Amino acid sequence: MLTFYHCPWSRGSSIFWLLEELGVPYEMKIVDIRAPGGVPEDYRAIQPNKKVPAIVHDGTVVTERAAIVLYLTETFPEAGLAPKPGDPDRAPFLSWLVYADAVYDPAIAVKAHGWDYKPSDFSFGSYEDMVRHLEKTLSSRPYIAGDRFTAADTQMGLGVHYAINVLGQLKDRPVLADYLSRLSERPAFKRSSGKDYELAREAGMAG
Hints:
- The chain is an alpha+beta fold.
- It is built from seven helices and four strands, in the order βαβββαααααα.
- The protein has a four-stranded mixed β-sheet, with helices on one face.
């Protein structure tokens, strides 16, 4: 039994996409992280900060996106979404999984909020360095970890999608637009995005 804790149009959407890529059965439980009264306190038993995503697999709780991606790709290796140890793409795969949460997300967030900060004071550094690294990487290869699609693309790809289409950032950058175009043609991306929209509409988040 695999249970997925999710809120539409959140960071959980990248795990939603990954689950559709894996093609494994799962149960989804919606956690309304935007509820006026907040998330029920008993959810802390699953996620200590009452955030999404989280999964429970056969009684084992896994939180944090990079950890969830590693757990799922190792538990369901038949999908071939993670380079194995010894594969040249393994190192960039692992690096970008962590980069998505540790650098990309916070850099995008502070930029979106217009915060003025000293990059050396924060572990994620500068927005400009992040964008430069992202564009340089995707100028040298079609996918974030190499020449083939991996689960790392569900994380970085969803992040790029959100930045461009929701936050209005990273626009007018052909390399990133081309990357997102490649990813958006994947059937699993279309399924998860469509279902996420319906969930958001039902929750009154979408018109």
